[in-house]
Amino acid sequence: MSEKYSATGAATDRWNPNxxxxxMDSTASEDRPLNYVQARxxxxxxxxxxTASRLFQExxxxxxxxxxxxxxxxxxxxxxxxxxxxxxxxIAEACACAVDQRSxxxxxxxxxxxxxxxxxxxxDEHLSKVEGPDCPFSILGGDVARRSDEVREAYxxxxxxxxxxxxxxxxxxxxxxxxxxxxVVGAITVGRASTDPKFSADLVKGVRSQxxxxxxxxxxxxxxPATGKAxxxxxx
Length: 236
What we know:
By secondary structure, this protein is an all-alpha fold. It has 2 domains: about 1-85, Homeodomain-like (Arc Repressor Mutant, subunit A); about 90-235, Tetracycline Repressor, domain 2. It has helices spanning about 35-60, 65-70, 85-110, 115-125, 135-145, 150-170, 175-195, 195-235, and strands spanning about 5, 10-15. β1 (about 5) and β2 form a beta hairpin. It is globular, with a radius of gyration of 21 Å. The termini are far apart.
């Protein structure tokens, strides 16, 4: 068996289509070890979730059916219910996946930065998404608000974890982290909806300016001593 890797880093299989574990639609043959079968099932489930996450962000949750998701994942419709009890469960996991992937990229971008630079990087990197896709908080938020409690709870939990991370890493309190997160997501949402490029640019500029002013006025003095201590420890 050989494998290739998707853009997200997950392995996608290129093995015999007659292999009974390919779509997990049938019982695995007895000559395959149980841990192998379980690993393939987990990989298949992960591929479905990642495919759904991408399609939901491209077309909206109501614009994509189970058939399309399974087809895009290289699987059959019949295998869906071997992994998920409903589309709502898949939506919940796909939302969590989208936020996790975005949050991980944020964590990598902020690694090693002092609080002020981390805050500036976070704000600029997110506001740049006004002109591109790649912001699940803005793209999925409206859809999530109309879904079941299961979906909303999964989304809320992941967003809450990101806000906690911001409060720890950006030299600000939780209140400032919430304000920053909602300001950048709101700016992205309104900016993308606008047909006026100048208005979108003014929106981004205004939000950025006010957030940086907030950080310096409310967070800078408290973050500075911590930054100095961190530098001292690093040079010791």
